[in-house]
Amino acid sequence: MQPRNMSMSGVVDLAAVKAAGEAKAKAEQARAQRQDPANASATAASPLVIEVTEETFESDVLQRSAEVPVVISFWADQAEQSKQLNAVLERLAAEYRGRFVLGTAEVYANQMLFQQFGVQGVPAVFAILAGQAMPLFQGSAPEDQITEVLDQLIAVAEQRFGIVGAEVDPGEAAAPAAEAPPRPATPQELALSAAHDALDEGDLAGAIQAYRNVLSDEPGNAEAKLGLAQAELLDRVQGADQQAVRAAAAASPSDVPAQLAAADLDLVGGHVEDAFGRLVDTVRRTAGDDRDTVRLRLLELFEVIGPDDPRVVTARTALARVLF
């Protein structure tokens, strides 16, 4: 197993378009609740290792992932290697003192989770951040490589989602931490929040304009770039007749609008490689302004998935071969 460059991108989840902004808000809310004395009894216990079941997955994993990275280790009783890995992960959970929570899921008792995560064998380790799953590694690994992966995960959680697990004494209950009063939101943060709200209400045009407003003042805002690319994608596929779009694309491989529309549907449907392959092939078949139009759309879709995603890296290489 080699440590990987982590990307929270993957199959496009339309419900998670605003995940980064919402996760930051949830993390702030969770920290505020921990400070409230009225919630002291509810927050006093914060176990670093939990047993995950299908019945408790939503409350113990999905909800908790809004305030701390959750690592899930799939294991089986007859797979000794998976039990040994769990022992290492449990010890690391204590050493990391609350920067991540470990959940262990026995595969035969949780067949639905096993299938939903697409686990091919055990041991298999995933992470959940802000309700989104990402694979970490499969099989056993040296401890130094495991800690490198965990360090990457914790960095992604803080940088992309504002999620920072509260420090916990492994042998004691976690006491509410005293924190400084939250700082006022900046104008850019308020504009970004307005964009998220518009998207949440189904106002795609309003969301697109709000994201553009942020980028006009702060062109390098990565969250606004991602939000704009995803909002525009949702706007393009809204109300599309999928059968008609795919039939038109199949009938005219060189029809640029037809191929662009089909690629959007591919991406929204989770067929990321198909979307990229379709547009790379269309670049190969076109020239001039048509070629440039397809190339720019492909770069937009790269933004939706994320520059570090291996499928984006592969598609960029294929695009470069076609262009040069």
TrEMBL record:
Residues 32-155 form the Thioredoxin domain. GO terms for biological process: response to stress. Keywords: Redox-active center. InterPro entries: Thioredoxin-like_sf (IPR036249), Thioredoxin_domain (IPR013766), TPR-like_helical_dom_sf (IPR011990). GO terms for cellular component: cytoplasm. It comes from the Bacteria. It holds the Pfam family TPR_19. One of its GO terms (molecular function) is protein-disulfide reductase activity. Belongs to the thioredoxin family. This is Putative thioredoxin. It comes from Actinacidiphila alni.
